[in-house]
Amino acid sequence: MTTGPPPGPTGGPVPVLGDPDRPDRHDSHHRPEPAPGTPPVRRFWAVRRIPAALVGVVLLGAAGLLLYDVAAVRADHSAMSWRRSLADELATRPLDNTWVLTAAAVAMLLGLWLALLALTPGLRAVLPMRREHPDVRAGLDREAAALALRDRAMEVSGVQSVRVRMGRAKVGVRALSHFRELDEVRADLETVLAGGIDELGLAFPPALTVRVARPPRKG
Protein backbone atom coordinates (compact mmCIF):
# COMPACT_ATOMS: atom_id res chain seq x y z
CA MET A 1 0.00 0.00 0.00
CA THR A 2 1.42 3.38 -1.02
CA THR A 3 0.66 6.75 0.48
CA GLY A 4 0.52 10.07 -1.36
CA PRO A 5 -0.63 13.61 -0.85
CA PRO A 6 -4.19 14.03 0.46
CA PRO A 7 -6.88 14.67 -2.12
CA GLY A 8 -7.96 18.23 -2.69
CA PRO A 9 -11.52 19.58 -3.02
CA THR A 10 -11.67 18.53 -6.67
CA GLY A 11 -10.27 15.06 -6.05
CA GLY A 12 -6.71 15.89 -7.16
CA PRO A 13 -3.67 16.11 -4.94
CA VAL A 14 -3.12 19.23 -2.88
CA PRO A 15 0.01 21.08 -4.13
CA VAL A 16 2.82 21.62 -1.68
CA LEU A 17 3.48 25.34 -1.11
CA GLY A 18 6.60 26.91 0.29
CA ASP A 19 8.81 23.85 -0.04
CA PRO A 20 12.34 25.10 0.80
CA ASP A 21 13.97 22.35 -1.30
CA ARG A 22 12.33 23.46 -4.52
CA PRO A 23 14.65 25.48 -6.78
CA ASP A 24 11.82 27.75 -7.96
CA ARG A 25 10.80 28.94 -4.54
CA HIS A 26 10.04 32.63 -4.08
CA ASP A 27 12.96 34.89 -3.34
CA SER A 28 12.00 38.20 -1.74
CA HIS A 29 15.02 39.93 -3.28
CA HIS A 30 14.35 38.71 -6.82
CA ARG A 31 12.72 41.28 -9.08
CA PRO A 32 10.85 39.79 -12.03
CA GLU A 33 11.79 41.23 -15.36
CA PRO A 34 9.06 43.34 -17.03
CA ALA A 35 7.38 41.85 -20.05
CA PRO A 36 8.51 43.08 -23.49
CA GLY A 37 6.68 46.19 -24.59
CA THR A 38 5.89 47.32 -21.04
CA PRO A 39 5.60 51.14 -20.98
CA PRO A 40 7.80 53.10 -18.56
CA VAL A 41 6.51 53.76 -15.07
CA ARG A 42 5.22 57.27 -14.41
CA ARG A 43 3.55 58.92 -11.48
CA PHE A 44 -0.22 58.97 -11.19
CA TRP A 45 -1.94 62.20 -12.24
CA ALA A 46 -4.62 63.69 -10.04
CA VAL A 47 -8.03 64.36 -11.57
CA ARG A 48 -8.40 67.60 -9.57
CA ARG A 49 -12.16 67.79 -9.95
CA ILE A 50 -12.66 70.48 -7.29
CA PRO A 51 -10.24 73.11 -8.74
CA ALA A 52 -11.51 72.41 -12.25
CA ALA A 53 -15.14 72.74 -11.11
CA LEU A 54 -14.45 76.00 -9.26
CA VAL A 55 -12.64 77.55 -12.22
CA GLY A 56 -15.37 76.39 -14.59
CA VAL A 57 -18.16 77.84 -12.43
CA VAL A 58 -16.39 81.20 -12.02
CA LEU A 59 -15.60 81.52 -15.73
CA LEU A 60 -19.09 80.43 -16.75
CA GLY A 61 -20.71 82.91 -14.38
CA ALA A 62 -18.49 85.81 -15.45
CA ALA A 63 -18.92 85.05 -19.16
CA GLY A 64 -22.69 84.70 -18.80
CA LEU A 65 -23.01 87.96 -16.88
CA LEU A 66 -20.85 89.85 -19.38
CA LEU A 67 -22.72 88.38 -22.35
CA TYR A 68 -26.05 89.35 -20.81
CA ASP A 69 -24.87 92.92 -20.24
CA VAL A 70 -23.51 93.24 -23.78
CA ALA A 71 -26.78 91.91 -25.19
CA ALA A 72 -28.73 94.40 -23.04
CA VAL A 73 -26.64 97.31 -24.32
CA ARG A 74 -27.17 96.13 -27.92
CA ALA A 75 -30.91 96.16 -27.22
CA ASP A 76 -30.75 99.87 -26.28
CA HIS A 77 -30.71 99.24 -22.52
CA SER A 78 -28.28 100.86 -20.14
CA ALA A 79 -25.25 98.90 -19.01
CA MET A 80 -25.11 97.52 -15.50
CA SER A 81 -23.72 99.79 -12.81
CA TRP A 82 -20.81 97.46 -12.02
CA ARG A 83 -19.67 97.55 -15.64
CA ARG A 84 -19.81 101.35 -15.78
CA SER A 85 -17.96 101.64 -12.48
CA LEU A 86 -15.31 99.18 -13.62
CA ALA A 87 -14.81 101.02 -16.89
CA ASP A 88 -14.47 104.36 -15.05
CA GLU A 89 -11.98 102.90 -12.59
CA LEU A 90 -9.85 101.39 -15.33
CA ALA A 91 -9.88 104.67 -17.25
CA THR A 92 -9.06 107.00 -14.35
CA ARG A 93 -7.02 104.99 -11.84
CA PRO A 94 -3.24 104.98 -12.52
CA LEU A 95 -1.35 101.72 -12.95
CA ASP A 96 0.80 102.27 -9.86
CA ASN A 97 -2.26 102.48 -7.63
CA THR A 98 -2.31 100.12 -4.64
CA TRP A 99 -5.59 98.46 -5.62
CA VAL A 100 -4.43 97.91 -9.21
CA LEU A 101 -1.16 96.34 -8.04
CA THR A 102 -3.01 94.17 -5.52
CA ALA A 103 -5.49 92.92 -8.13
CA ALA A 104 -2.65 92.19 -10.56
CA ALA A 105 -0.74 90.27 -7.89
CA VAL A 106 -3.82 88.19 -7.00
CA ALA A 107 -4.46 87.42 -10.67
CA MET A 108 -0.81 86.42 -11.15
CA LEU A 109 -0.88 84.11 -8.12
CA LEU A 110 -4.08 82.46 -9.31
CA GLY A 111 -2.57 81.97 -12.77
CA LEU A 112 0.59 80.44 -11.31
CA TRP A 113 -1.50 78.14 -9.12
CA LEU A 114 -3.54 76.94 -12.10
CA ALA A 115 -0.40 76.44 -14.17
CA LEU A 116 1.18 74.47 -11.33
CA LEU A 117 -1.89 72.25 -11.11
CA ALA A 118 -1.84 71.69 -14.86
CA LEU A 119 1.86 70.82 -15.09
CA THR A 120 2.34 68.65 -11.98
CA PRO A 121 0.92 65.14 -11.54
CA GLY A 122 -0.17 65.44 -7.92
CA LEU A 123 -1.30 62.36 -5.97
CA ARG A 124 1.81 62.48 -3.80
CA ALA A 125 0.25 59.91 -1.47
CA VAL A 126 0.32 57.18 -4.15
CA LEU A 127 3.66 55.52 -4.93
CA PRO A 128 3.85 53.88 -8.38
CA MET A 129 4.74 50.21 -8.40
CA ARG A 130 6.80 48.23 -10.89
CA ARG A 131 5.02 47.27 -14.10
CA GLU A 132 5.51 43.62 -14.96
CA HIS A 133 2.67 43.51 -17.50
CA PRO A 134 1.78 46.16 -20.11
CA ASP A 135 -1.91 46.29 -19.16
CA VAL A 136 -1.48 46.40 -15.38
CA ARG A 137 -0.65 49.59 -13.50
CA ALA A 138 -0.65 49.68 -9.72
CA GLY A 139 0.13 52.13 -6.94
CA LEU A 140 0.68 51.83 -3.21
CA ASP A 141 -0.55 54.29 -0.62
CA ARG A 142 2.28 55.90 1.33
CA GLU A 143 0.58 55.32 4.69
CA ALA A 144 0.07 51.64 3.90
CA ALA A 145 3.73 51.32 2.87
CA ALA A 146 4.86 53.01 6.08
CA LEU A 147 2.65 50.71 8.14
CA ALA A 148 4.07 47.62 6.41
CA LEU A 149 7.64 48.76 7.09
CA ARG A 150 6.76 49.56 10.69
CA ASP A 151 5.42 46.04 11.21
CA ARG A 152 8.62 44.61 9.74
CA ALA A 153 10.77 46.80 12.00
CA MET A 154 8.86 45.76 15.14
CA GLU A 155 9.92 42.16 14.49
CA VAL A 156 13.59 43.04 15.11
CA SER A 157 14.83 41.99 18.53
CA GLY A 158 15.41 44.90 20.87
CA VAL A 159 13.06 47.35 19.16
CA GLN A 160 10.58 48.94 21.52
CA SER A 161 8.87 51.43 19.22
CA VAL A 162 9.26 52.62 15.63
CA ARG A 163 8.23 55.69 13.68
CA VAL A 164 8.35 55.49 9.89
CA ARG A 165 8.12 58.56 7.70
CA MET A 166 7.51 57.47 4.13
CA GLY A 167 8.37 59.87 1.33
CA ARG A 168 8.60 59.51 -2.44
CA ALA A 169 12.41 59.54 -2.41
CA LYS A 170 13.37 58.76 1.18
CA VAL A 171 12.22 56.63 4.10
CA GLY A 172 13.08 57.94 7.55
CA VAL A 173 12.94 55.41 10.38
CA ARG A 174 13.35 56.33 14.06
CA ALA A 175 13.44 53.43 16.49
CA LEU A 176 13.80 53.12 20.25
CA SER A 177 15.72 50.11 21.56
CA HIS A 178 15.54 49.14 25.23
CA PHE A 179 18.19 46.41 25.04
CA ARG A 180 20.97 45.17 22.75
CA GLU A 181 23.68 47.35 21.31
CA LEU A 182 22.39 50.21 19.18
CA ASP A 183 24.73 49.41 16.29
CA GLU A 184 23.49 45.83 16.16
CA VAL A 185 19.85 46.93 16.22
CA ARG A 186 20.52 49.51 13.50
CA ALA A 187 22.25 46.92 11.31
CA ASP A 188 19.36 44.48 11.71
CA LEU A 189 16.83 47.21 10.97
CA GLU A 190 18.66 48.25 7.82
CA THR A 191 18.75 44.67 6.59
CA VAL A 192 15.11 43.94 7.39
CA LEU A 193 13.79 47.25 6.05
CA ALA A 194 15.85 47.01 2.86
CA GLY A 195 14.18 43.68 2.17
CA GLY A 196 10.81 45.16 3.10
CA ILE A 197 11.23 48.05 0.67
CA ASP A 198 12.16 45.61 -2.09
CA GLU A 199 9.08 43.51 -1.34
CA LEU A 200 6.83 46.56 -1.68
CA GLY A 201 7.46 46.40 -5.43
CA LEU A 202 7.93 50.14 -5.88
CA ALA A 203 9.11 51.40 -9.25
CA PHE A 204 11.40 53.94 -7.57
CA PRO A 205 12.62 52.45 -4.27
CA PRO A 206 13.29 55.25 -1.78
CA ALA A 207 16.55 55.68 0.10
CA LEU A 208 16.57 54.36 3.65
CA THR A 209 17.71 56.27 6.73
CA VAL A 210 17.63 54.51 10.11
CA ARG A 211 18.21 56.12 13.50
CA VAL A 212 18.18 54.16 16.74
CA ALA A 213 18.22 55.63 20.24
CA ARG A 214 17.47 54.66 23.81
CA PRO A 215 14.04 55.48 25.24
CA PRO A 216 14.00 58.48 27.60
CA ARG A 217 14.36 57.72 31.27
CA LYS A 218 11.28 58.15 33.40
CA GLY A 219 11.43 60.49 36.35
Structural notes for this entry:
The protein is an alpha+beta fold and 219 residues long. It is built from five helices and five strands; from the N terminus they run αααββαββαβ. The chain is elongated and about 90 Å long. Mean pLDDT is 80; it is low at 1-29.
Quick structural gist:
With 219 residues, the protein is an alpha+beta fold. Helices cover 42% and strands 13% of the residues.
Radius of gyration from the CA trace? 31 Å
Please identify the structural class as seen in this structure: alpha+beta
Strand content: 5-15%
Alpha carbon gap, first and last residue: 71 Å
User: What is the N-to-C order of secondary-structure elements (H for helix, E for strand)?
Assistant: HHHEEHEEHE
* Spatial ordering of strands, largest sheet: 3-4-5
Question: Percent of residues in helical segments?
Answer: 40-55%
Largest sheet: 3 strands, mixed
Query: How confident overall, as mean pLDDT?
Result: 80
Question: What spatial form do the alpha-carbon principal axes imply?
Answer: elongated
What oligomerization state is this entry in?
A: single chain
Number of helices: 5
Strand runs, count: 5
Low-confidence runs of at least 5 consecutive residues: 1-29
